[in-house]
Every structure is written in structure tokens, then in C-alpha cells.
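Lecture notes, unit on binding sites. The following record was shown on slide 14. It pairs a sequence with zinc ion.
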Amino acid sequence: MSLSDPVLRLAADLIAIDSRSSLSNLPVAERIEQELAGFEIERLDYTDANGVAKRALVAHKGPRQGYALSGHMDTVPATGWQSDPWAPRLDAAGMLHGLGSVDMKGQLAAAIIAARQAAADVPATLLITTDEETTKEGARRVARDSRLARSLDLAGIFVVEPTGLVPVRGHRSHIAFTATAHGLQAHSSTGKGVNANWKLLPFLAAMREVHDALRSDPALQDADYDPPFSDFNLILDNHGTAMNVTVAKATAQIKFRYSAKVDPKPVLHAVRRAARDAGIDLAEQMEGFPPELPADHPLIARATRLTNRAPRTAPYGTDASELQALAPCVVLGPGDIALAHTPQECVRAQDLVDAVPVLARALRDGIA
Ligand SMILES: [Zn+2]
């Protein structure tokens, strides 16, 4: 196998363009547009919270309705990479290496090639987002603002993140809490400072109770997920304060993930009440509602027929939490999620090549 296969060549071209979420994705969006001759294209331009120019793309050809394939253009940071993350490389074992190879420029290339191959009477839509790894803002813009996507009356969306081509019918969404206690910085020996940690402590004790309840109370759990209990991960930060300085600012961050059958309100209320009681600031960032379809939903049945594999659920999140506002979503793509977000990120090249006919059938089967 070589990089001469069109899917691998496009995947390699996309990997070679640095599109970490902190940067503008315009170069990679422009490269993708070169592949979309014959498609009607809508550009959704916006400026992210850090003032960086971003673009999501909606592309369509053929009749209205039908199905969409969706992927994101951004990648995680290059943490830990020893080799050049933007130098795509196919090794002797047939693995394509590079930042974004499996999450998810390889899958995006497969989706683009599959949509391009669709016959003239088959509707083919691409929803190409960015900021998936951070805020999901690209997907939110597509769902909320895309005139083209809304006009199509889509029957379903295949989010082509790596699932080993097993249909994922539901996943968790998260609420990110940031609690901040303020003190007064001074030399700790003088007695003139105020240590913010003492103000944070009662809040943390209450969070310990929430954490333990999530682990022990079946009413807060979902047996359809592995693990059945929700993630409630706590990170503490004193922002580099030395031992002889009173802490001016103490921050607790908590990522709470929940699935569709779990009501997040008891947790939301407990966190808000604890912050109020402790007299500290609380910020919340909430993703869209967790997407989940029953195993007998027509879109899940379609995905099951396509792959001959039983649907399952996943503990991680995708753009489906936003895109479900447009049409029902299933997560289905080639590659192994375990290889994502690591400095050894890679994907089996043959898996990308083999996924193209599957994604083409996802668009075509039973249509016209
Ligand atoms: Zn991804």
C-alpha cells in the first residue's frame, strides 16, 4: 500500500496542515473545498472566544433529503510528540501516522471521497465542523445557522468518528464546572494574607458527597453504559503559589458527564448550592443534551445493516450532541479511538480505504 490511494493522499494532505483547535482552521477548510467541485457549499465563518477566525463547511449535491456524513477539521494539541506531528508517514505495517490521522482527518477524507462518488440521483451532504475538541462551536453553528443544512430535511447524520465501524447509538455529554475562591496574597508568615483554599474546602467536601452519590446511587446511573456511573472528575489549581505565600486564587474544575437517561438537575443544583453556601464563584459550560437513539430506530437499524454489527453506547462525546438538533445522529467510522489523543496517533490505512464503500452505501442504500 502507498499514499497513492486517493483517500490516503487526501488524509495525508489534511494531516500536513496544522489545525489544532487553538489555531485558525481556514487553511484546512480551503484545502477541503478544493475537493468539493460540483457541490453547493455554504461557509459558516465565525470568530472563536480567543478572537481566532474559524470556518465550518456544509456541502451538498444531488436531490434534497437523504443522509449526511460529518467530521471535524480540528485536532488536539501535539502534547508529547517526539516526531513531526504534521509529517504524515505510512509505515511498513500499513499504519498512517500523524496528528489527526485517527481523530479524524483520515475519516474525514474517507467521507469526502465517499460523498464525491455518489451518483447524480443520490443525495450527498457533508457537515464539516471545527472546535470539536474544545467547545463544539463549529457543530453548534452548523445546527443553528446553516441555511443549506436546514433546507435539506436530512433523514440522518453519520458522525464518522473512529468506532471500529461499530454503530454507536448514544453517548454522554458533559457539563464543565469551574469554581473559583479568592483570597489575599501575602507572605504567609505575616498573618496579613487570606488563603483562598480555606474558602474552597467546604465546597470540595460537598463535591465529594456528589461524587460518592454518583458511584453508589442507582437512580443517578445508566446500566446501558460502561461504566454505568457518571464521570465527575475534579482538578485543583493554586496557580503556582509557593509554600510561603497565601493563596490568592484557588480553582476547582469538575467535568461531569451524563447520558440521556440520567437527569443532570440534582447534580447541577448540588454544585450551585455548594458554591453559593461557600461564597465562591461558579462558571458552567454545558454541551448539548446527550444524544441517544433506541436500538430499533430506523437510523440505527440502517447502520446495523450496513456494518453487520450490533449497536452500542460510548462514554465519550462527539459533535452529535449538537448536530442532533438537525437530524438523528449515529456515530460510525473506521479506526480505533484508543489511538487518538496520544503522541503515537495513527490509523490502519486499509481501514480508511475499506470505509469508503461503507460510507458510500450509508448515503445510497434504499434511496431512489
Ligand atoms: Zn474527534
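Take-home: The chain has two domains: 6-171+290-364, 173-286.
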